[in-house]
From TrEMBL:
Membrane spanning stretches: 21-43, 49-73, 94-124, 144-164, 171-190, 202-220
Keywords: Membrane, Transmembrane, Transmembrane helix
Domain of life according to the entry: Bacteria
Protein name per UniProt: Bacitracin ABC transporter permease
Protein backbone atom coordinates (compact mmCIF):
# COMPACT_ATOMS: atom_id res chain seq x y z
CA UNK A 1 0.00 0.00 0.00
CA UNK A 2 2.75 2.45 0.98
CA UNK A 3 4.62 1.80 -2.27
CA UNK A 4 1.47 2.46 -4.31
CA UNK A 5 0.87 5.72 -2.46
CA UNK A 6 4.46 6.76 -3.04
CA UNK A 7 4.17 5.93 -6.74
CA UNK A 8 1.04 8.09 -7.05
CA UNK A 9 2.82 10.91 -5.23
CA UNK A 10 5.66 10.80 -7.73
CA UNK A 11 3.48 10.17 -10.77
CA UNK A 12 1.26 13.19 -10.14
CA UNK A 13 4.13 15.43 -8.99
CA UNK A 14 2.40 16.20 -5.71
CA UNK A 15 5.53 17.93 -4.43
CA UNK A 16 4.39 20.86 -6.53
CA UNK A 17 1.21 21.04 -4.46
CA UNK A 18 3.25 21.99 -1.41
CA UNK A 19 3.86 25.44 -2.87
CA UNK A 20 0.13 25.89 -3.47
CA UNK A 21 -0.49 24.71 0.09
CA UNK A 22 1.82 27.38 1.52
CA UNK A 23 0.26 30.06 -0.68
CA UNK A 24 -3.22 29.08 0.54
CA UNK A 25 -2.15 29.48 4.17
CA UNK A 26 -0.66 32.91 3.49
CA UNK A 27 -3.76 34.09 1.62
CA UNK A 28 -6.21 32.82 4.26
CA UNK A 29 -4.27 34.33 7.14
CA UNK A 30 -3.58 37.62 5.35
CA UNK A 31 -7.24 37.99 4.37
CA UNK A 32 -8.36 37.36 7.95
CA UNK A 33 -5.82 39.87 9.26
CA UNK A 34 -7.04 42.38 6.68
CA UNK A 35 -10.64 42.00 7.90
CA UNK A 36 -9.52 42.72 11.44
CA UNK A 37 -7.16 45.54 10.60
CA UNK A 38 -9.61 48.16 11.78
CA UNK A 39 -8.91 47.29 15.41
CA UNK A 40 -10.91 44.89 17.57
CA UNK A 41 -12.96 43.83 14.57
CA UNK A 42 -13.38 40.47 16.27
CA UNK A 43 -15.19 40.12 19.57
CA UNK A 44 -12.70 37.54 20.82
CA UNK A 45 -9.93 35.20 19.74
CA UNK A 46 -12.55 32.46 19.32
CA UNK A 47 -14.42 34.70 16.88
CA UNK A 48 -11.25 35.19 14.86
CA UNK A 49 -10.45 31.48 14.80
CA UNK A 50 -13.99 30.66 13.74
CA UNK A 51 -13.38 32.72 10.62
CA UNK A 52 -10.00 31.05 10.07
CA UNK A 53 -11.58 27.61 10.45
CA UNK A 54 -14.35 28.37 7.96
CA UNK A 55 -11.95 29.73 5.34
CA UNK A 56 -9.52 26.88 5.98
CA UNK A 57 -12.22 24.22 5.60
CA UNK A 58 -13.59 25.69 2.38
CA UNK A 59 -10.16 26.18 0.83
CA UNK A 60 -8.79 22.73 1.49
CA UNK A 61 -12.01 20.85 0.78
CA UNK A 62 -11.87 22.40 -2.68
CA UNK A 63 -8.13 21.68 -2.83
CA UNK A 64 -8.95 18.07 -1.98
CA UNK A 65 -11.35 17.89 -4.93
CA UNK A 66 -8.55 18.93 -7.28
CA UNK A 67 -6.52 16.03 -5.90
CA UNK A 68 -9.43 13.64 -6.44
CA UNK A 69 -9.81 14.96 -9.96
CA UNK A 70 -6.11 14.60 -10.74
CA UNK A 71 -5.38 11.29 -9.04
CA UNK A 72 -8.60 9.36 -9.69
CA UNK A 73 -11.17 11.00 -11.98
CA UNK A 74 -8.77 12.08 -14.72
CA UNK A 75 -7.32 8.58 -14.99
CA UNK A 76 -10.79 7.17 -15.59
CA UNK A 77 -11.67 9.97 -18.00
CA UNK A 78 -8.49 9.49 -20.03
CA UNK A 79 -8.66 5.70 -19.51
CA UNK A 80 -5.06 5.57 -18.34
CA UNK A 81 -6.39 3.61 -15.38
CA UNK A 82 -6.62 0.63 -17.76
CA UNK A 83 -2.84 0.51 -17.87
CA UNK A 84 -2.70 0.26 -14.08
CA UNK A 85 -5.26 -2.53 -14.14
CA UNK A 86 -2.90 -4.64 -16.26
CA UNK A 87 -0.46 -4.80 -13.34
CA UNK A 88 -0.55 -7.88 -11.08
CA UNK A 89 -2.12 -5.87 -8.27
CA UNK A 90 -5.74 -6.02 -7.12
CA UNK A 91 -7.81 -3.20 -8.61
CA UNK A 92 -9.37 -2.44 -5.25
CA UNK A 93 -5.95 -2.05 -3.70
CA UNK A 94 -4.88 0.36 -6.46
CA UNK A 95 -7.92 2.57 -5.99
CA UNK A 96 -7.86 2.30 -2.21
CA UNK A 97 -4.29 3.61 -2.18
CA UNK A 98 -5.42 6.65 -4.19
CA UNK A 99 -8.31 7.38 -1.83
CA UNK A 100 -6.07 6.97 1.22
CA UNK A 101 -3.54 9.35 -0.32
CA UNK A 102 -6.18 12.03 -0.89
CA UNK A 103 -7.68 11.59 2.57
CA UNK A 104 -4.33 11.73 4.37
CA UNK A 105 -3.19 14.75 2.36
CA UNK A 106 -6.45 16.58 3.05
CA UNK A 107 -6.26 15.77 6.76
CA UNK A 108 -2.64 16.91 6.89
CA UNK A 109 -3.34 20.16 5.04
CA UNK A 110 -6.32 21.04 7.22
CA UNK A 111 -4.40 20.28 10.41
CA UNK A 112 -1.05 21.83 9.57
CA UNK A 113 -2.54 24.97 8.06
CA UNK A 114 -4.75 25.63 11.08
CA UNK A 115 -1.97 24.96 13.58
CA UNK A 116 0.34 27.22 11.58
CA UNK A 117 -2.18 30.06 11.58
CA UNK A 118 -2.88 29.62 15.29
CA UNK A 119 0.82 29.84 16.02
CA UNK A 120 1.16 32.85 13.71
CA UNK A 121 -1.71 34.55 15.52
CA UNK A 122 -0.02 34.04 18.87
CA UNK A 123 3.17 35.49 17.41
CA UNK A 124 1.71 38.63 15.77
CA UNK A 125 -1.09 39.48 18.20
CA UNK A 126 1.14 41.97 19.98
CA UNK A 127 1.40 44.09 16.84
CA UNK A 128 -2.07 43.40 15.40
CA UNK A 129 -5.08 44.77 17.24
CA UNK A 130 -7.38 41.93 16.19
CA UNK A 131 -9.31 41.11 19.35
CA UNK A 132 -9.38 42.40 22.92
CA UNK A 133 -8.32 39.22 24.71
CA UNK A 134 -4.90 37.55 24.75
CA UNK A 135 -4.34 34.27 22.91
CA UNK A 136 -1.89 32.26 24.99
CA UNK A 137 0.02 29.11 24.13
CA UNK A 138 -2.23 27.27 26.57
CA UNK A 139 -5.19 28.32 24.43
CA UNK A 140 -3.43 26.99 21.35
CA UNK A 141 -2.83 23.64 23.04
CA UNK A 142 -6.45 23.59 24.16
CA UNK A 143 -7.57 23.97 20.53
CA UNK A 144 -5.38 21.14 19.19
CA UNK A 145 -7.94 18.32 19.75
CA UNK A 146 -10.63 20.32 17.94
CA UNK A 147 -8.23 21.09 15.09
CA UNK A 148 -7.45 17.42 14.50
CA UNK A 149 -11.07 16.32 14.94
CA UNK A 150 -12.28 18.95 12.49
CA UNK A 151 -9.60 17.92 9.98
CA UNK A 152 -10.54 14.25 10.31
CA UNK A 153 -14.23 14.98 9.70
CA UNK A 154 -13.76 17.49 6.88
CA UNK A 155 -11.32 15.18 5.09
CA UNK A 156 -14.05 12.53 5.10
CA UNK A 157 -16.67 14.96 3.80
CA UNK A 158 -14.22 16.04 1.09
CA UNK A 159 -14.53 12.55 -0.43
CA UNK A 160 -18.22 13.06 -1.27
CA UNK A 161 -17.46 14.80 -4.62
CA UNK A 162 -16.02 11.47 -5.75
CA UNK A 163 -19.62 10.27 -6.15
CA UNK A 164 -20.45 13.00 -8.65
CA UNK A 165 -17.11 12.89 -10.41
CA UNK A 166 -17.17 9.13 -10.97
CA UNK A 167 -20.64 9.24 -12.49
CA UNK A 168 -19.56 11.41 -15.40
CA UNK A 169 -15.81 10.81 -15.16
CA UNK A 170 -15.58 14.60 -15.02
CA UNK A 171 -12.98 16.66 -13.17
CA UNK A 172 -15.15 19.78 -13.52
CA UNK A 173 -18.10 18.04 -11.86
CA UNK A 174 -15.86 16.85 -9.03
CA UNK A 175 -14.55 20.34 -8.28
CA UNK A 176 -17.93 22.05 -8.72
CA UNK A 177 -19.63 19.67 -6.31
CA UNK A 178 -16.81 20.24 -3.81
CA UNK A 179 -17.34 24.00 -3.99
CA UNK A 180 -21.06 23.59 -3.30
CA UNK A 181 -20.57 21.10 -0.46
CA UNK A 182 -17.81 23.12 1.22
CA UNK A 183 -19.85 26.32 1.19
CA UNK A 184 -22.98 24.56 2.45
CA UNK A 185 -21.04 22.92 5.27
CA UNK A 186 -19.29 26.09 6.39
CA UNK A 187 -21.78 28.85 5.66
CA UNK A 188 -23.29 30.49 8.73
CA UNK A 189 -26.62 32.03 9.63
CA UNK A 190 -26.31 34.69 12.30
CA UNK A 191 -27.99 37.58 14.01
CA UNK A 192 -27.08 39.83 16.91
CA UNK A 193 -27.47 37.06 19.45
CA UNK A 194 -26.49 33.78 17.81
CA UNK A 195 -24.70 32.12 14.93
CA UNK A 196 -25.40 28.70 13.43
CA UNK A 197 -23.94 26.50 10.72
CA UNK A 198 -24.16 22.85 9.73
CA UNK A 199 -20.65 22.34 11.08
CA UNK A 200 -21.85 23.40 14.55
CA UNK A 201 -24.24 20.45 14.72
CA UNK A 202 -21.73 17.73 15.57
CA UNK A 203 -23.76 14.76 14.37
CA UNK A 204 -24.28 16.14 10.85
CA UNK A 205 -20.57 16.54 9.95
CA UNK A 206 -19.81 13.13 11.44
CA UNK A 207 -22.58 11.49 9.41
CA UNK A 208 -21.41 13.25 6.26
CA UNK A 209 -17.82 12.17 6.91
CA UNK A 210 -18.96 8.56 7.25
CA UNK A 211 -20.99 9.04 4.06
CA UNK A 212 -17.91 10.36 2.27
CA UNK A 213 -15.82 7.36 3.30
CA UNK A 214 -18.67 5.05 2.33
CA UNK A 215 -18.95 6.70 -1.08
CA UNK A 216 -15.23 6.28 -1.61
CA UNK A 217 -15.57 2.56 -0.92
CA UNK A 218 -18.70 2.10 -3.04
CA UNK A 219 -17.08 3.90 -5.96
CA UNK A 220 -14.69 0.98 -6.48
CA UNK A 221 -16.49 -1.87 -4.67
CA UNK A 222 -17.36 -3.66 -7.92
CA UNK A 223 -14.34 -2.56 -9.91
CA UNK A 224 -13.11 -6.16 -10.22
CA UNK A 225 -16.33 -7.17 -11.99
CA UNK A 226 -16.61 -4.43 -14.60
CA UNK A 227 -14.52 -2.88 -17.31
CA UNK A 228 -13.57 0.77 -17.43
CA UNK A 229 -15.74 2.58 -19.99
Amino acid sequence: MWQLILLDWQKHHLNQSLRSFVICIIVIFSFSIFLGNGGHSFISADDFFTLLTILNNITFMIFSSTLLARIIIREFHQKTIQVLFTYPIARKKLLLSKVVLVYVLTFAMLSISMLTMQLATWFVQGTMDLFPDYYALDDLLRDVPFTFTNACIMAGIALIPLLFGMRKKSTATTITSAVIISFLMNSTISNEHARWSLADTVIIPIMLAILGIGIAYLSFRKINKKDVV
